[in-house]
Amino acid sequence: MNLIENIREGLRSIAGNQLRTILTSLIIAIGITSLVGILTAIDGIQNSVNSSFEGLGANTFSIVARQDAFRRGGRVQRQDAPIDYFDAVQFKRRFPYGATITVSSAVSGAAQAKFGSKKTNPNVLLIGGDDAYLAVKGFTLQSGRNLITNDLSSARNVAIIGSEIANTLFEKKINPLNQAIRVSGTQYIVVGVLAKKGGFAGGGEDRMILIPLDNARALAGNQKLTFDITASVPSVSSQDEAVGEARGVMRLIRRDPLGQPDSFEIERADDLARETEDITGYLRIGGFGIGFITLLGASIALLNIMLVSVTERTREIGIRKSLGATPKRIREQFLIEAIVICLLGGVGGILLGLGVGNLISSLISEGKGNFIVPWAWMGLGLLVCVTVGLFAGIYPAVRASKLDPIEALRYE
């Protein structure tokens, strides 16, 4: 009996036991679904995060004050003094790189916007910014205009609102432009509506209201604001040099003593992206571990089923041996059966994993993520299927090949 005939015999055996084949394949499919599904979801989430950072641009960095105590050199340091308006304005004037710089401040993260009888939840992010804020932060306008010089110099009560706020207050029935809304007791005229951003941040940027910076300072009153500085340099290649220059300029403005650490922190967009990739790398390891454990259970179940199959087909094995089948051919038949069953389950598991993984990714990224087809994980899934088939089939195959043909023929 040659190898081709052995393959045909194995496939006939699988076709003749359809219920057992389906149940066994489902066990493998569930294991592959967990493996491919988790890894696909992680890849989809990573793509969503990368898209969010691409909105900022790889050549962007921010200067912020740390507002929590932090550890340096084994010692807990006090929080940084807030970056005040003078620091931010001085930096914008003295930074020599010709970068696009925006100065902004979060007035409130729990504001409430009202229009007539409609009002939002008290979770609106009220931001004071300038005319460069939208471009540097990666926002696009759905309708209306950006803040202009006259708005900033006169501290006019105008506002640009996020898409979620526009939908809540105007319900797509009224054009938001030139409508008057009330936020924190002050009336603002809507001059622009932002396009939906969504993404991994949970949609918080769609609940934002942008007002002129000086207007925000007046609105804060006695509240001490801290200002964030975000700069976009002309090219990625010059970012390292620009960040070094920015650190020097800011230390001079903040009068940080020589030998003392910075009283601020510079956050680079590409650094944040790398940190996120490191985190998702650990998630992939964890997801692979969970999938491996599930597949280990599936392989043990398949091993048990194949042992039962050997017992049920003892007489068949005796007949084949009496007709000249060698132990090698007997082993091949059972190994082929185990591998084919695993591959059938693997293909089904990959398709289920693709659907489940992309569904999870889409839910987390609020529909912003693209459909992911992880060819590497799919190939890994098929390789794992073959490995599981070999692992689960080799012992039953060896056991079947060692059966004595006379004793096997007498088996009832």
TrEMBL record:
Annotated ABC3 transporter permease C-terminal domain residues = 290-405
Q: Mind listing the GO molecular function terms for this protein?
A: transmembrane transporter activity
Q: Which domain of life is it from?
A: Bacteria
Q: Which residues form the signal peptide?
A: none
For the keyword Transmembrane helix, the answer is: yes
Membrane-topology annotation of the record: Multi-pass membrane protein
Q: What is this protein called?
A: ABC transporter permease
